[in-house]
Amino acid sequence: MGTGSPASVLLAGGGTAGHVSPLLALADCLRRRDPEIAISALGTAEGLEARLVPARGYPLLTVPKVPLPRRPSAALARLPLLLRDAVRAADEAITASHAEVVVGFGGYVSTPAYLAARRRGIPVVVHEQNARPGIANRVGARLTRFVGTTFASTSLAHATVVGMPLRREISTLDRRASRAEGLAAYGLADGLPTVLVTGGSLGAQRLNSAFAQRVGELRAAGIQILHVTGRGKELEVPSGGGAPYVVVPYADRMDLAYAVADLVVARAGANTVCELTAVGLPAVYVPLPIGNGEQRLNAQDVVAAGGGLLVDDADLTPAWIDHRLVPLLRDEEGLVQMARAASSVGDAHGDEHLADLVDLAYASGVHRG
Questions:
Q1: Phi, psi (5° rounding) for residue 4?
Q2: What Å distances lie between residue 181 and 34, 109, 150, CA to CA?
Q3: What distance separates the 2 farthest-apart alpha carbons in the chain?
Q4: Each residue of 264-320: pLDDT tens digit?
């Protein structure tokens, strides 16, 4: 272990794959760099991290969930007490993990982790996935100068662009070499144009509904679909001839799903955008119509480069599938050009860049000590 690397790191984030995936990607990168480093994760007992973090081989410590209300309410009045309890739990997690650096990825978990670390004088690193930062990371960025962002357009104090930490199976994916394995894994046919439809870990009702109404038409057009609906949102696909229409609730091997796809229809979460550009997949991005509009901003660079299309949630209809998606799938040269454009804005090394920032933060704490 070099003197510039911490012996123990606590990674704070959870709730959705948007926070958990980069957390795990950084954990794996730190472990590759130093097999002896102690890595713990801080999350909630209810979030996706409760399953994914232990499955990846890292211990999970928990804090109570503390939503940050955006407007005056009864929840806002309870916030000080809830936050106090969460900061206490985060402080206990720092003690238990012997953390020398705390890295936060935003969301409910990160604010108490930032505050507990700052109170102890432990270096803090903030990573913001989205083009428009959330409340937790706006708070965290004021407490440290080690702030990494995915997108250059993100306005955040002390920000340095590091990209998105991606899972190794995605960042090193050779889609052509893995295609046969992916076709076999998902029961798809070779030689047919293939669309991956995914709303992320939670699914997307708009995508699910629109495609459910076009199963027969897509089969008849010779276009096969791999549809990731989200858990508990599975579709009943009627039996019939034509191209395969495969429905799965969740894709544990998203690398193989990407390997079989010629085009992706998806939400525009930061992790999704960065994965698709890193592997060079053209996409139709359908930003989530709620929240603070960050998903539309996440996709703006790849869309501007010609590597994707932006479609409003209300416009993603069965008719749109007929009149826009089917012709797009039949334009092989157009898809090739879109794939090249997507690759031109992709970065597969965000995990290494963020790990460098962790080392810098640790060194700052050592020098201060």
A1: -90, 10
A2: 32, 37, 31
A3: 70
A4: 999 999 999 999 999 999 999 999 987 778 899 999 999 999 999 999 999 999 999
Residue-level length of the chain: 369
Q: What is the DSSP string of 270-310?
A: HHHHHHHHHHT--EEE---SSSSSHHHHHTHHHHHHTSEEE
Q: Are strands 124-128 and 60-62 parallel, antiparallel or unpaired?
A: unpaired
Q: Please state, in angstroms and rounded to a whole number, the distance separating the CA atoms of residues 228 and 4.
A: 42
68 burial level (CB within 10 Å; 0-12, 13-18, 19+): middle
Q: Which two tokens stand for residue 267?
A: 């939400």
Number of Cβ within 10 Å of residue 48's Cβ equals 19
Q: What is the pTM of this model?
A: 0.88
Domains of the chain, first to last: 8-168+348-368 (3.40.50.2000), 173-344 (3.40.50.2000)
Report the alpha-carbon distance of residue 108 to residue 152 in Å, rounded.
24
Classified as helix, coil or strand, 6 is coil
SS3 336: helix
